[in-house]
Design brief:
Adenine-n6-DNA-methyltransferase TaqI, Chain A, domain 2, 269 residues, four-stranded antiparallel sheet, 2 domains
Length: 269
Amino acid sequence: MNEWPLAYLGDLIYHKKGFAFKSSAYSDEGVLVVRVSDTTNSSIDIKTCKRIPQKMATQFKDYELHTDDIVIMTVGSWPDNQNSVVGKVVKVPSSANNALLNQNAVRIRNRSQIGQSFLYYTLKNRAFSGYIVNNAQGSANQASITLEDIFSFQLNIPPIPEQKAIASVLSSLDDKIDLLHRQNKTLEAMAETLFRQWFVEEADEGWEERPLDQIADYLNGLACQKYPPKNEVDKLPVLKIKELRNGFTDKSDWHQQIFQMNISYKMAM
């Protein structure tokens, strides 16, 4: 890897900044418009996208997205909110083919020296995200990165055959992850069905209902900002609400349903 030559990102790509579409142009039908808020961790959720009329869209062909294009967010949050972090990199899915790119993002396409898939995985690497955060500017609530800074990022360029081999392995891992996510959704649906059948449709009218505070102990969180540590030794990790929310919803609501099933079962015994 140390023998692979270094190159600036700007020398390896073609790019196009998104257009500032006005909200007054949005329509119920027409061509999709992809905004920063429509991106997921690695893709685009077309269900949340706005649209503009087909006739209007013809004048914005230069802003079209094609399948496997790379999009980098030039405006966003700081790393404490990964869902909207500045510099987030996504790959355009086939469902968003021919959609139009809105402002605060830039479309990336490869030149001949680098494969598009290898480029995508390189930009998804922590080296790139760390570089973006270190060079971003802005306030406490919003960060931004210039195209000049993005294109100044340096990356190693292996020979094309090695690029293809690396991208192939990583793509296979992505496929496996997607498969596991789909299996999880199936299990979640099964758990929801069982919960509804056992504790809604076939619920015993004789089961007793109680408030949660009668069957569980609870403790309110501490306002930690009121009690700053006196020194480095006294510092302890703090679990925040947003971290609870992210960790819980990533595992889906079926965990909560299982928890409720256990409570109902114990009360019925």
